[in-house]
Amino acid sequence: MGKAKVVHYINQFFAGIGGEEKADTKPHILNELPPVSAQLDKALGEEVEIVGTVVCGDSYFNENLDEAKVEVLDMIKSFEPDMVIAGPAFNAGRYGMACGAVVKMVQEELGIKAFTAMYDENPGVDVFKKDAYIVRTKDSAAGMRTAIPAVAKFALKLISGEEILSPAEEGYIERGIRVNAPAEERGSMRAVRMLIQKLKGEEFVTEYPMPAFDRVAPNQPIKDVTKAKIAIVTSGGIVPKGNPDRIESSSASKYGKYDISGFADLTEADHETAHGGYDPVYANLDADRVIPVDVLREMEKNGEIGELFQYFYTTVGNGTSVANSKQFAAEIAKDLLDNKVDAVILTST
Amino acid sequence: MVKEIERAGIPVVHMCTVVPISLTVGANRIIPTIAIPHPLGNPALDPSEEKSIRRKLVEKALRALETEVHGQTVFED
């Protein structure tokens, strides 16, 4: 058997095409392996070769899911590969969603092996971990140095057909799959030992972690929107021009609360976006494209809503940790309640 | 964020383009929007047309806030 053939799926950034301004790049095959594919190819050694790289812009993929999937699949298929590797996507949300979708599709449609790699909090993990192996990486491309060997090692194992062991042993994210395995001690012994450890306050590892379902039931609808006080919250990073509180363009450590009582329309003279995870051109020209102040103001005037709350709340939802987001929102929610806001429109980019 | 606001007892509608992410984070009332960098606008249109599609989306969001839902609901057209 000759070398095993691998196709690499990456986004526009890792292809060296550009950042957010190129996120609408359509799927295509790169004529030459970009550095990330070349590095991975080298790490894969002599027996496995990356025969081609398929690239697609993150926004294009997520906004045109059905077409993008067909186009990407056809390109991958043209190489007749033995395996597909997507990413690593680190904590880039749209990239992670695309990688997960590509891997799932390749497994189902082509019946070949595929996997991806990303950070635990990437939204692609929750959506695709049941469908695919996702090798755990750090949260940013600064972790590429450790990600490449981890991805290569997993690739060689997966393509060899050897048994894939537990997530902890192989370095992938838990998929919620239970596997029978022989144990040295019988269950009662292990359970009692765990109980004693727990009583003593010692660390122990459960053999059956409960899935963490954190769902909040929907609240009752508002009765009469024409009497309601509506507030705007956004993760799209809209801020007053100049970003007075210096909200970070990614991994935000804070949120802002800004007065919009004087505005009937947001313009490039007064508002912009601080978000570093999408092409800012359109939001900088007209921030109403992210937070619809103009329309809500008009509706307030026409009596279609009771009132547009005096302030809006904003942060940058770009690689921002779940812990930070929860904390921001808990503080925002308290403030909304104190101000007797009836309902919230939350916009995301 | 959307879940924490809901948890506090305030009805919230999530307007976003990547609906699968919204479903994963646990939003209950979801309005699909236009594009990632301009969810509530379309720079390809002239300003009055653009504002009118924004208005339609906001009207849809307000209707969602007035609608009783029993689980995650995506308000398509």
Notes on the protein architecture:
Chain B: Its EC number is 1.21.4.2. Chain B: InterPro entries: Various_sel_PB (IPR010187). Chain B: GO terms for molecular function: glycine reductase activity. Chain B: It comes from Acetoanaerobium pronyense. The complex is a heterodimer of chains A (349) and B (77). Chain A folds into two domains: 4-170, Rossmann fold, CATH 3.40.50.2300; 225-347, no CATH class. Helix content of chain A is 34%, strand content 18%. Chain A is built from eleven helices and twelve strands. In chain A, helix 1 packs across helix 6. Chain A is globular and about 70 Å long. Chain A starts with a strand and ends with a strand. With 77 residues, chain B is an alpha/beta fold. Chain B has a three-stranded parallel sheet with strand order 1-2-3, with helices on both faces. The radius of gyration of chain B is 13 Å and the shape is globular.
Question: Could you provide a short overview of the structure?
Answer:
The complex is a heterodimer of chains A (349) and B (77). Chain A has 11 helices and 12 strands. With 349 residues, chain A is of the alpha/beta class.
Question: Could you name the key traits of this structure?
Answer:
heterodimer, A: alpha/beta, Rossmann fold, 2 domains, 11 helices, 12 strands, 18% strand, B: 77 residues, alpha/beta, 3 helices, 3 strands, glycine reductase activity (chain B), selenocysteine (chain B), Glycine reductase (chain B)
SSE topology:
The complex is a heterodimer of chains A (349) and B (77).
Chain A: E1 4-11, E2 28-30, H1 35-43, E3 48-56, H2 58-63, H3 65-77, E4 83-86, H4 93-110, E5 113-118, H5 123-128, E6 133-136, H6 144-160, H7 167-170, H8 187-200, E7 229-234, E8 238-240, E9 256-259, E10 271-273, H9 281-285, H10 293-302, E11 307-314, H11 322-338, E12 343-347
Helix pairs in contact in A: 1-6, 3-4
Chain B: H1 2-7, E1 12-16, H2 19-25, E2 29-32, H3 47-65, E3 73-74
Parallel strand pairs in B: 1-2, 2-3
EC number (chain B): 1.21.4.2
Keywords (chain B): Oxidoreductase, Selenocysteine
Protein name (chain B): Glycine reductase
